Each structure stands twice: as C-alpha cells, then as structure tokens.
Amino acid sequence: MNGDPHSLAAVRQAWICYLACVLALAVGVRLVDDRVALAGFLAVHGALLGVALLLRADGRHARAAWSAFTLCGLPAVFSAVGLGLPDLHPQPYEWCWIAFDRWLLGTDPTVAVQAWLRPWSTELLQLAYATFYFLPIAVLVTLLRAGRHAAYDRCLCAVAVGFLLSYLGYYLFPTLPPYRYLEHGAPLRGLALAESVHGLLDTLEFNRFDCMPSGHTMLTLVTLALAWRYTPGLALVLTPLGVLLIAATVALRYHYVADVLAGAVLAPLALLAARFIAGGAGGRAAPGPGTR
C-alpha cells in the first residue's frame, strides 16, 4: 500500500468511536423525540457504523475506501445532526456567546463590523468562505498526485478527526448563527455572487445549529498546519485564502467571536488527537515534511 496503515487505522477508529457515541447518545438520552426523525438519524449513523466496522485499514484498497467513506460520511453525519439538535436545544446557547462577545469586545462584533464592509469586501469574503471544503481537498489531492501516500494518510486522519470533533461540539452546545439570531438591520450586499453563494450555502445546510465550535476556523487552521508541514508551496497559496475565510466567519454573520476562538483552540488539539489515535493504532510520531 506504500502508505501509513496506522493512520488509516486511526481514521477507522475515529469514525467507529464517533458513530458509536452518537448512537448511544440518541438512544440513551432520547436525542430525537420525533419517530420519523429518529428513524432517519439511526439509519444514517447505523449504516455508516456497519460499513466502518466492515472496512479494513490494511487492505490493498484501504486508502481509496477510507477516502471515499470520509468524503461521503462527513456531509451525511453533519446533515443528520440537524435531525437531533432541535430536540436537544433546551436553552438558547446563543446568548452565552453573545454575552461573551459583549464582555470581551463591548459590542456585538457581527453588528459592529458592518460599518467597515463594502460590496467588494463582502464579495471577496463570501467567495473565500465558500472555499472551506476545497482547502483540505487541495492538500490531499496534492499529496496523492505526488505519490506521498504516508503523508496523505496522516492528513486524511487529521482532517477526519478534526471534522468529527467539531460535530461533537454541536451536540454539546447547539447554537444558531448570528445571521439567524441577531438583528443586523440590513442584509449584506456584494457585487455579483455574494448573495447567491450565501443563499446556496444556506439551502444546502440542513443542520442549523453548527456554530460552537467554528468548524470553518478549526478545520482551516488544521488544514493550514498540514499544508505548511507537507506542502509548503501550496501553503503559500492557501494561507491568504484561509485568513480571509476565518475573517468571513464573523464579518458575514456566520459565527460569534466566542466560537471562532473555540475553533482556534481546538485546532491544535485535533492534530494532537489524530497523532495520539494513530499512535494507539501502532504508529509512531509523524515524521517531518521530507518523508513520503
């Protein structure tokens, strides 16, 4: 396979652990009250858990299998979160983060920043925000095309662990975004595509309670860390885009400063967790960027 089977084993373990925990949560604390929603929730997670248990991490096609599983599984479980969180929302967590932002900055930052936005900056930030999923894919594809399979496996592990950790945060602190919760006066206006892109993202996002932590911040920082370690040339291109993306989380009313900070804190923890799980699967600490 010419890669890092321990990292692929870690991807498998992370998925099994996440799916088992969420299923136990759904059954143990009646996460979903609606029977139809509960059936859909259990079906998605149960099917994925069954596949994860059957797939091996050391076979000839393990890399392709776990890449496909992660690529398809992440949006599936993210959307399925929306089936459960309406019933797991006993209090408005939004006010916790609003209070934190006001304590830290003395204002609502998503409201205050509107005075600085112009149509061209809104357009630029919205387009950068929309590249979120393409950043880790760019790093992974670059490594795969270069035949650096061990580095690819480690990055796949870190990305999978990062996403799944952020999803667990949504269950702990289900939070609606500022553009759905706070009064901002006027809608944001771009030059040509900003409103359409925002509308498309809003339509595709079945899970509405996805603020705490900021997955956009967390996974962008994870991706940039991986890019600088394994693909420094690509990192030069991705870093400015990542900075704009993180700025867009608050400027475009998608996130509170509180959950952006939480995402920034959790990013290095996700990287450490990925290495720890891989080590538990029999691997060693990841070598430097010169390794394949």
What's the quick description here?
By secondary structure, the chain is mainly alpha-helical. 70% of the residues lie in helices and 0% in strands. It has helices at residues 5-28, 35-54, 62-84, 94-105, 109-112, 119-129, 134-145, 149-172, 178-181, 194-204, 215-230, 232-251, 257-280.
Which terms would index this structure?
globular; single chain; mainly alpha; disordered C terminus; 292 residues
Explain what this protein looks like in three dimensions.
The chain has 292 residues and is mainly α. The chain has one domain (5-280). 70% of the residues lie in helices and 0% in strands. It has helices spanning 5-28, 35-54, 62-84, 94-105, 109-112, 119-129, 134-145, 149-172, 178-181, 194-204, 215-230, 232-251, 257-280. Helix 3 packs parallel to helix 8, helix 6 (119-129) runs parallel beside helix 10 (194-204) and helix 8 (149-172) packs across helix 13. It starts with a helix and ends in a 12-residue tail after the last helix. The model is unreliable at 283-292 (pLDDT under 50).
Structurally, the number of domains stands at 1
For the CA atoms, what is the radius of gyration?
A: 19 Å
Beta-strand share of residues? under 5%
> What is the end-to-end distance?
13 Å
Q: Write the element-wise H/E pattern from the N-terminal end onward.
A: HHHHHHHHHHHHH
> Care to count the β-strands?
0
Major sheet: size, sense and barrel closure? none
The portion of residues assigned to helices is over 70%
| DSSP summary: helix tally | 13
Derived from helix and strand composition plus strand pairing, the structural class reads mainly alpha
Low-confidence stretches: 283-292
